[in-house]
Every structure is written in C-alpha cells, then in structure tokens.
C-alpha cells in the first residue's frame, strides 16, 4: 500500500484526499518508482478543477513531474535497474500514470537519470520548465544570437528557465510580469528588460524594450485577446508561440494592420511524445546544467500532507518566481 493523493470530484484544493492504495506491478515498458518529490504546476490545478486539456477520470490521481528511485522494472525494460535515481518527465496522461503518491508506475520512456549530486526536490523542479523552453527555441523555432525574444508572465519556473536558456543562446530576453516582485529574479536570470504589465497596452512598452525594432519571437503563456498587443510588438516575420492559457479566454487570430507574423499553439507533449526529440532535449538540458548556465529555482517546498495548501499556493497571484515542490518523504535524498 502507498499513500496516494486523489480527488473524487472536481473543485478547489479541498477535494484532494490522501488515501492508502495498492500499487500495481509494472507492465511492459513500465517502471515502478519510489517517489521522493513532486513538481507542482498549474496543469494539475486545472486538471483538479476539470478545466484542463483532458478531463479527469474520477476518482483521479494527478501529477506528472517527480524524482525518486527505481523499485521494480517491467519485463522488457533494460535501461533501468532497481536503485537508479531518476526524474520523471511529463510524457503521459495524468489519468494513466499519476505521481502524487509514495510509489508510482510510470512509462520507462518518461524517465531520465537524475544528474549526479542533485537532490530529489531539485530533480522534481528541473525537467518540465527546461524541456518546455527547449522545444520552443530549438525545435519549433531555432533562436539565433541577437534575437529579441519576449517572454510573457515570466515570474514562474518556465519564465525563469526561458530567460536563462535564451541568454545562454545569445538572444536578448525581454520579460513581462504582472507585479514588480518578480523583476529582480528575472534580471538576475539574464533578462535584458522586465516590463511590468499593468493591464494597459503592451505593444508600446515592448517595442521600446526591444529598441524600437520589435520582437523576433514571443513566448506567450497568457493567450486570450491581448495576443493582439504582442503581435503589434513584433518585427516583420516574427513568431508568436502560445504555450499557455493563463487568461482563460479564447485566443483569436488578430486582425488589423500588423507586421506579418507566424502564430501557433505549442505543447510540451510535442517534445516529450517524440522519443528522438526528448533525447535531444535531455542532452541540451544536461549540458546547460553542467556548465552552470541553467540554474533551477525552487520556490517553496510543501510536505505531502499539505497538498491542499500547496495547490492553493500554485494558484495564488502572489506566489514568488520558481517551482513549488511537494516533498513526499521528509528525508528525500
């Protein structure tokens, strides 16, 4: 039996329950792991609410980012052995392989070896942000030195990772935040400029922050009707990648007189669902960690029993930049 977090109805953090449940043996292509820490993100908050891309199959577990140790491997798994320290990359449905638990069964293909010397809490915070950013700036678009790149709603783990990655590639990151609190962290991470979004038109401030030339690339976590302001801040031939939906509103195709841009939706599953792309992403992230260019930022660490408070914090507008993590075991290695 393993303590497992589930919900039997959609709703607020109060619907989350801790239950003792049996853990099945891993099947072909699967691995059973001891979970030491879990990375938290808004996808799980929306999944719990019933507003995510996929609907929960109730009663539902949740979570797709974790770090721990291999306990048992499926009959055809040769890459992993019991005792291996691993991290779990989101490459699967939360309905099928939830990781908010003391033990979890996950696809072997979704595992990466934890970097030497990295603790479980940091390991749970690394892969989702950096792999997400890698896909946008190396697979969908190939960022070049000197490119001016706008990162919206950047005071979070993906925004910080984006700024670090862009600076590492020689680009010029310009971040937006909704409150001044995240400004210093983004400047320290390498942002050339940080624009505080007070709800007024962003086009002018962003054009000014790019020296009047406009953005070559926009990584937009917000979506909704204000994407038109981002398009208006672009240089001719720019790309706008909408990778989030924080606005909660539909994202229209902007009309009017704008410079011609390419706009598309992006999901991290484009990378994690492609084994070759995922291996490229893993190599890229490992290299950045090894040389010190990528420094994962853990915001707050919550104990397993405090999962409701953790979810409330993830959804709070006042949270600090960085990755909230759920510590499953008090002495996570």
UniProtKB/TrEMBL annotation:
One of its GO terms (molecular function) is oxidoreductase activity. The keyword NADP applies. Keywords: NADP. This is Zinc-dependent alcohol dehydrogenase family protein. CDD domains: MDR2 (cd08268). Pfam families: ADH_N, ADH_zinc_N. InterPro entries: ADH-like_C, ADH-like_N, ER, GroES-like_sf, NAD(P)-bd_dom_sf, Zinc-ADH_QOR/CCCR. Residues 11-326 form the Enoyl reductase (ER) domain.
């Amino acid at each position: 039996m393993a303590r497992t977090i589930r919900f039997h109805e959609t709703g607020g953090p109060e619907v989350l329950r801790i239950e003792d449940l049996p853990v099945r043996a891993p099947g072909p292509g699967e691995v059973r792991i001891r979970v030491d820490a879990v990375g938290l993100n808004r996808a799980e908050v929306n999944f719990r609410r019933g507003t995510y891309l996929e609907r929960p199959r109730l009663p539902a577990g949740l979570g797709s980012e974790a770090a721990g140790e291999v306990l048992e491997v499926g009959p055809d798994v040769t890459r992993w052995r019991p005792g291996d320290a691993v991290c779990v990359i989101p490459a699967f449905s939360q309905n099928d392989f939830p990781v908010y638990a003391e033990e979890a069964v996950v696809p072997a293909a979704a595992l990466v070896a934890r970097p030497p010397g990295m603790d479980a809490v940091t390991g749970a915070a690394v892969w989702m942000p950096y792999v997400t950013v890698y896909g946008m700036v190396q697979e969908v678009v190939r960022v070049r030195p000197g490119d001016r790149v706008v990162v919206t709603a950047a005071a979070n783990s993906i925004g910080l990772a984006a700024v670090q990655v862009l600076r590492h590639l020689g680009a010029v990151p310009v971040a937006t935040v909704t409150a001044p609190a995240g400004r210093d962290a983004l400047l320290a991470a390498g942002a050339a400029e940080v624009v505080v979004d007070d709800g007024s038109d962003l086009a002018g401030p962003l054009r000014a922050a790019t020296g009047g030339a406009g953005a070559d690339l926009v990584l937009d976590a917000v979506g909704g009707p204000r994407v038109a302001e981002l398009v208006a801040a672009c240089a001719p031939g720019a790309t706008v990648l909408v990778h989030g939906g924080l606005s909660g509103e539909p994202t229209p195709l902007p009309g009017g007189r704008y410079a011609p841009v390419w706009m598309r939706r992006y999901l991290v599953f484009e990378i994690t669902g492609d084994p070759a792309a995922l291996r490229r992403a893993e190599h890229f992230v490992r290299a950045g960690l090894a040389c010190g260019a990528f420094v994962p930022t853990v915001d707050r660490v919550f104990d397993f029993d405090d999962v409701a408070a953790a979810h409330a914090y993830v959804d709070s507008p006042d949270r600090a930049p960085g990755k909230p993590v759920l510590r499953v075991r008090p002495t996570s290695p």
